[in-house]
Amino acid sequence: MSTVTWRRIVIALAAVAVVISGVAVAVRFFMHPTAGSAPAATSALPPGFPDLDGLTDVSQAHEVSHHYALATFTSPTGLQCAMWSSRGDTAAFCYGTIPGLDHPANQVYAGDYKAHFDQKGPPAADKLNGKPLASGEKVILGAGGKLMGGDQITCGVQGVVVACVLTRKSAQHHGFVLDPQRSWTF
Question: From CA 176, how far away is CA 183, in angstroms rounded?
């Protein structure tokens, strides 16, 4: 073989190596994002969702289970709320008289894939009778995306409005706002 042919072979192999390296880096990035990365910032939340960033974090006073990630609280209006991550189910939930609806509902749920209002019986006893969460306070479960799948749940109270958001590592958000004027889910 001539020197020109060998050069062409070496250049072609080098080009293939560069392409393969680029593909490997892209696959690693998309399959394994930076370890410990937090869920996306709240900027992607729907319009009208309250800003929970300025609220005081009182999470440690509300974590109640040693068996799985669970935090509970009672809102200023008496709603019984819980946030948990167990057996593939990560969610936030409030039970009681839901304000601001045009239909009857006694609970709201926001989980990994959906959020909705419902009319059902009371939840399990471990999700009831949490300590009061005052206006200006919030509870964060899985801070930094440490729950199953890299999720994080934040619930806060402003006045009598309760707002909860489940932020998935994939940057999806599900949650609810319980407001006497208008309650809604997303």
Answer: 7
Q: Which two tokens stand for residue 186?
A: 């997303």
Indicate the pTM of the whole model.
0.75
Which residue has 């080009």 as its token pair?
15
Neighbours of 85 (CB within 10 A): 23
Of 32, 41, 29, nearest to 152 (Cα)?
Answer: 41
Q: Examine the pLDDT at 6 and tell me if it is beyond 50.
A: no
DSSP β-bridge partners for residue 72? 82
Q: Which helix (H) or strand (E) holds 11?
A: helix 3-31
Alpha helices in the chain (DSSP H): 3-31
Exposed/middle/buried for residue 126 (C-beta within 10 Å: 0-12, 13-18, 19+) = middle
β partners of residue 181: none
